[in-house]
Amino acid sequence: xxxxxxxxxxxxxxxxxxxxxxxxxxxxxxxxxxxxxxxxxxxxxxxxxxxxxxxxxxxxxxxxxxxxxxxxxxxxxxxxxxxxxxxxxxxxxxxxxxxxxxxxxxxxxxxxxxxxxxxxxxxxxxxxxxxxxxxxxxxxxxxxxxxxxxxxxxxxxxxxxxxxxxxxxxxxxxxxxxxxxxxxxxxxxxxxxxxxxxxxxxxxxxxxxxxxxxxxx
Length: 217
Prior knowledge:
Largest sheet: 4 strands, antiparallel
Helix content: 25-40%
């Protein structure tokens, strides 16, 4: 009977944010499809002009999601029954602008957007540029953690570790975002927004992998 030991290793890495991600949600709604698409195009062009005015290129604005669908509104008929009726088309666009962490540039972007007629929904996150290094460091830490645990268990049991048999690791995207919540929802404030110097909280992320070793007497 093969004797084995299976241990789960956990890696934890902390890093200072060095990247700003501003995601814009733009909604355009008109009764006719062609009118909706025209409004959506105009809205995006206004946003592009706004960011170009402060030094960005059109290509810096990335599209995450684009969706057009019929829109319905709910109403009550003469018998007080709730019903839906067609109310045109709704186009939703999600765009992201990423740049090096710079408090003044955040102010510039918000001010430029506030001067447009688009009024997009805003979501501001802080992340890191070098995701690969973080991911690799997590795997290294998880491996060291698992081996150390296995060695302690083997030593306490009066045995020694043999060959490594299996490694079970689930490759996945990691949530590399700072928990710092940044919210400026009032459009009137954005026009004159001067973002104070802030230091986003460190990004703390963990990952795990499972290792199996043979046990030698």
